[in-house]
């Protein structure tokens, strides 16, 4: 599956002999932090020399060029520092390339000395598909899940990120749990009587949600953007709370897939196709809008996959902004990958590139799945998967504005074909 795209890793090993005369001294093991590291992992072993029962007590910590970044004394044999999370006792944050050092306190050194072996692993920033849910609720508005429960469920699903977009509040954004591998994307659902939209990536995008007219909405959008939010129009063709404000506002994406695939999603899809055909590069995203345990509405259904430079809020939302997004009905749903030369989903193939052949790689198919390709002319091609597994094919984007892929599947529960996966388009500038 696409998520197996491995993160690039490298490592370094250092050995340092510590003499008895160094007892009580602070020792540095210098190393160079490479560029573009997303997480550093350090572990150490101490081997005492001399007689069998001689003991060494060597403490552990680390510094960057500016300051001590963490200290665990004799309490830990290993630690991690990432951009967002770190082992307790250590400070997460940027991993600036350059001069760093592992720190030791030679608290107790045997008569014959000892050897410290330090191993450092670097996880490099590697563009890869990260998956999660951009639209969920919690007890901070009308949901029943605590923030910890939401995070734990996403963890159990093997997801990477979650946005808890509670209605017109931000208290969830300042209470995010830290002891989870799930990246928390700050979010709030700007909820009005004439439509909902998600503000993603800003902890505090608005001071007051109460609006009475379009100019109020425009102003709230402007401020939210100024505070760093990406804006998604939610369930725009919903029967109960459609988007009735202007579609001409400044936003980053549209949630064309909200919860289980239903007619309202179908209407949003048709609207999106019209926008694309008119030459508007509108980014399609999805979200479960889960509030509470439910038979149909569940976390990461649909699941949003983002080709991200790094597992950070900026990494994920940067990928969303560029349209590097695929939506699947569930975290283990079928996946469609498209490329044209060096360009991928969401990219625009420039006029200078002569090849317009789009390579399509389909994964996780079930026999009977129906794959459809669309351009501004409508459906270009439809094929059925004859067996489970993968399928590779090419489709021409010659003289087209874009090509995008849909995978449809028969779901017994619904007794009909439903959307199982959907890509954003590859766009083409007119060839010369
Ligand atoms: Zn809503
Ligand atoms: Zn919602």
Report on the structure:
The protein contains 4 helices and 28 strands. The strands form 5 sheets. Strands 9, 10, 11, 17, 18, 21, 23, 24, 26, 27 and 28 form an 11-stranded mixed β-sheet that branches. The chain folds into 2 domains: 6-124, Jelly Rolls (Sandwich), CATH 2.60.120; 128-428, Metal-dependent hydrolases (TIM Barrel, Alpha-Beta Barrel). The two termini are 36 Å apart. The protein has 432 residues and is mainly beta. 11% of the residues lie in helices and 42% in strands. It is globular. 42% of the residues are buried. It has helices spanning 147-156, 214-226, 263-277, 313-321, and strands spanning 9-18, 26-33, 37-48, 57-63, 68-73, 78-82, 98-108, 114-124, 128-136, 161-164, 183-185, 187-192, 195-200, 230-233, 253-258, 284-287, 303-308, 325-328, 335-340, 343-344, 348-349, 357-365, 370-375, 378-384, 389-396, 402-411, 416-423, 426-428. One zinc ion binds next to loops.
């Amino acid at each position: 599956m696409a998520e197996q795209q491995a993160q690039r890793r490298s490592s370094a090993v250092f050995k340092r002999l510590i003499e008895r005369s160094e007892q009580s001294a602070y020792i540095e093991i210098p190393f160079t932090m490479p560029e573009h590291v997303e997480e550093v992992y350090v572990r150490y072993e101490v081997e005492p020399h001399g007689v069998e029962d001689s003991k060494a007590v060597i403490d552990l910590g680390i510094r960057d060029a500016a300051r001590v970044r963490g200290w665990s004394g004799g309490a830990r044999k290993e630690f991690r520092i990432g951009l967002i999370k770190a082992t307790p006792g250590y400070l997460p944050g940027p991993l600036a390339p350059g001069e760093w050092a592992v720190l030791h306190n030679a608290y107790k050194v045997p008569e014959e000395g000892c050897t410290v072996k330090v191993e450092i692993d670097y996880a490099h920033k590697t563009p890869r598909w990260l998956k999660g849910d951009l639209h969920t609720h919690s007890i901070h508005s009308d949901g029943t899940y605590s923030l910890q429960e939401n995070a734990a469920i996403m963890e159990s699903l093997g997801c990477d990120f979650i946005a808890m977009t509670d209605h017109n509040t931000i208290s969830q954004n300042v209470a995010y749990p830290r002891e989870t591998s799930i990246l928390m994307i700050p979010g709030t659902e700007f909820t009005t009587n004439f439509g909902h939209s998600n503000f993603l990536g800003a902890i505090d995008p608005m001071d007051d949600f109460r609006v009475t007219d379009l100019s109020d909405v425009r102003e709230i959008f402007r401020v939210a953007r100024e505070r760093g939010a990406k804006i998604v129009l939610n369930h725009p063709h919903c029967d109960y709370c459609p988007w009735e404000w202007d579609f001409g506002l400044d936003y980053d994406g549209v949630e064309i897939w909200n919860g289980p695939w239903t007619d309202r999603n179908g209407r949003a899809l048709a609207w999106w196709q019209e926008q694309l055909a008119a030459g508007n590069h509108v980014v399609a995203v999805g979200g479960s809008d889960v509030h509470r345990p439910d038979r149909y509405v569940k976390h990461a259904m649909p699941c949003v996959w983002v080709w991200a430079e790094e597992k950070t809020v900026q990494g994920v939302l940067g990928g969303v902004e560029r349209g590097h997004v695929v939506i699947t009905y569930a975290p283990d749903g079928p996946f469609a990958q498209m490329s044209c030369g060096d360009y991928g989903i969401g990219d625009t193939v420039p006029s200078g590139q002569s090849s317009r052949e789009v390579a399509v790689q389909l994964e996780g198919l079930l026999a009977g799945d129906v794959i459809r390709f669309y351009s501004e002319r409508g459906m270009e091609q439809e094929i059925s998967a004859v067996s489970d597994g993968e399928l590779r094919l090419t489709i021409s984007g010659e003289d087209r504005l874009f090509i995008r892929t849909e995978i449809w599947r028969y779901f017994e529960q619904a007794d009909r074909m439903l959307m199982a996966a959907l890509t954003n388009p590859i766009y083409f500038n007119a060839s010369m």
